[in-house]
Amino acid sequence: MLEAKRLAGELGAVYVPRRRLCELNVDFYYVVEKGRLSIKWKGGEFFFHPSTAILRMRNIKAGQRDYLIETLQPEGNEVVLDTTFGLGSEAILMAAFLPEGKVVGLEASLHVYTIVKYGLERFQTDIEWLREAIKKIELLHANFKEFVREASDNYYDVVYCDPMFENPVYESSAMNPLRPFAVYDTVTEEDVKEMLRVAKKKVIIKTHVKDSLLSRIRVDELKGAKKSGVVYGVIHKR
Ligand SMILES: C[S@@+](CC[C@H](N)C(=O)[O-])C[C@H]1O[C@@H](n2cnc3c(N)ncnc32)[C@H](O)[C@@H]1O
Question: pTM surpassing 0.85?
Answer without folding.
Answer: yes
